[in-house]
Amino acid sequence: MVDIIISGESGKLHAVYHKSAIPSAPLAVVLSGNPRQKYHMNDRVSYAMFRAFMDIGFSVVRFNYRGVGDSEGTIGTTSENLLDIATVIDWIQNHNEDSDKIWLAGHQLGAWYVLQAMMRRPEVSGFALVSPDPTVSDFSFLSPRPNRGLLLQGAAETDDARDFAPHLTQILKKQAQIDIETIRIKNADSLYSTPADLRQMYNDLKAYVGRENSEDRLL
């Protein structure tokens, strides 16, 4: 993996990129949580998501939104962060023209950004939501977009978070026709604070993406 700089709408975006040895390998973009809550591309959950895709042969990138770490600018609004996400998706696609599949994965607020970006990018093959932010309640942007995805959650998250997951699942199925699988990790909180919890999250994400990607190849 290498550090790279991507030219964004408000300046340079700092990113880390792994290029698969297979030219036509599927792609993935990893989205960290709310930058105003100090989440960034090198936090432990973002790194674990990145490694899950990397270790099953994807070309994958993670990055800091504007105003975070070495990315230029000031911390952005939702619309500005979505522009950064679109810029990074364009970048990885332009550098992997032989690939025809791309996945998105996000943690906390990044999970909500995954859904927003997917509605704008019909080429997205699959997605993973890791402990989505339960305070987000606006899903008016969702429209029918048949797809498959994974929701990963710690079983020791707050009551609100545990109640939010089935609510979100029903919204996605009813409003967007999305088939979503839910996995709850025993004893884990939303930060996957212990090494065992983080390893389990990594293993579950890796297994799901590997299975779904393999099934796609058989079609």
Strand content: 15-25%
Helices and strands: which structural class? Answer: alpha/beta
Per the principal axes of the C-alpha atoms, what is the gross shape?
globular
Assembly category? single chain
The percentage helix is 25-40%
Q: Mean pLDDT, nearest integer?
A: 92
Please provide the ordered H/E string of secondary-structure elements: EEEHEHEHEEHEH
Low-confidence stretches: none
Count of helical segments?
A: 5
Q: Compute the number of strand runs.
A: 8
Give me some keywords for this one:
alpha/beta
Q: Short summary of the structure?
A:
The protein has five helices and eight strands. With 219 residues, it is α/β, with parallel strands linked by helices.
Fold and architecture overview:
This protein is 37% helix and 25% strand. It contains 5 helices and 8 strands. It has an 8-stranded mixed beta sheet, with helices on both faces. It is globular, with a radius of gyration of 16 Å. The mean pLDDT is 92.
Task: Summarize the helices and strands and which ones pair or pack.
Layout: E1 2-8, E2 11-18, E3 27-31, H1 44-54, E4 59-63, H2 78-94, E5 102-107, H3 109-120, E6 124-130, E7 147-154, H4 159-176, E8 178-185, H5 195-218
Parallel strand pairs: 3-4, 3-5, 5-6, 6-7, 7-8
Antiparallel strand pairs: 1-2, 2-4
Helix pairs in contact: 1-5
